[in-house]
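I have been asked to look over a protein record a colleague put together. Alongside the sequence sits a line of tokens, each denoting a local backbone shape. I have pasted the whole thing underneath without changing anything:
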Amino acid sequence: MKTIFTVGMVTVLGCALLPSIANATNGMFLIGNGNKAKGMGGAGIAVQADSLSAATNPALIAGMANRFDIGVDIFKPDVEAQLGSVSSSSTAQINGMGIDSVFILPSMGGTYQLSETTTLGLSVVPVGGGGTKYNTNFFEAARGSQGNINSQLGVDLVIGEIVPTIAYRVNKINSFGASLIIGISRFSAYGLNLFSTFTPSNTPDKLTNQGRDWVFGTGIRVGWLGDFGKVKVGVEYTSKVWMQTFKKYTELFAENGSMDIPANAGLGISYQATPDLLLALDISRTFYNDVKSIANTGPNLAGDPAGSLGSNDRQLGLSNGLGFGWGGRNVYKVGAEYTINEKWIARAGWDYSESPINENTQIIFNLVAPATVQNHLTLGGTYNLSTDMAVNASYIHAYRYEQSGPTYISDDGSNLGRLSMSQDTVGVSFSMKY
């Protein structure tokens, strides 16, 4: 386990050192953990797929054989945004390699069966985040002659987690698990000078262009798995991960630079319909409404008699400071796994979650965090190299979804904004039992 932890630290730091994932696919989160689950629409609360399953429901590794899983996803979003007459596409490059809008997301996990009833695990996963990089700054265009439209605009939020887990099989039916979540976040923002008038200091000094800031935090995840023969039922609850505040951005996020990772809870059911066909369904909810920097509403719309800010207690960085206006959201996942023969396994699935963005009132801040995608088609498969080793692959397509609505400002007086995104992700992983 010491070796796994060392590799895990390298993996999660590797996640954080790469560019952001612009935006994650279920709001600010990825679709699932591990290529097996991703191939099944992310459905995994009641599916004992691999060691990364512990990052979804810690009870799933109860009774799991000693194993090691390591993988990487290649993520390519296509993001467009417009404010008034100025539009821009989001681009980024991998460490100067000249590959636009392609991001690499590594992950790994391992389990160790301590006894017939107790299993230990460690998983290291990219959880989500969001980011954009626009080479045309429509916020600066809205400032008129004071603005530099050619300056870069964007944000970069990366969230990774190290998840040590213990799972206990009580009897043939019931298993329980618990995980400590160690969260790591990296954030930077640039080109947000337009919003300096919303800060207590009336300057951009703790708002934008302050470079990368790192924070750490902790939370817990608990889960149950019930094995009823052909039917398995799983339940998980993940607490809020309480993160340190971003000291360089205390006048951007509410509560003096706080950006906790939201809590979530979920229910999953899997059904072994035939010896070769497994079906799975997950329903979960993410509590964005409990994190003020995410849930607090943004500026008022043009023409509001209270003005764009409303009152001074809504200044950026304060407890009631401006935010993205996201509410809690449900996520629905369905998936199927079919064993073709002893070598090949095929998977398919679907994931749906309503966009958390209220296009009627909350467009302006969300132009730099365009979490619009709702529907996802997934495919996947496994090739068994032997009884102890396998290669897994997955593909996710998030269908383009566009939102538009009113704002409080623009360069042309229309006070309208628009944002859209689609995504494609290809993943591959290697699994080994030992």
Observations:
- The chain has one domain: 2-433.
- The helical segments are 2-17, 35-39, 138-142, 254-257, 292-295, 363-366.
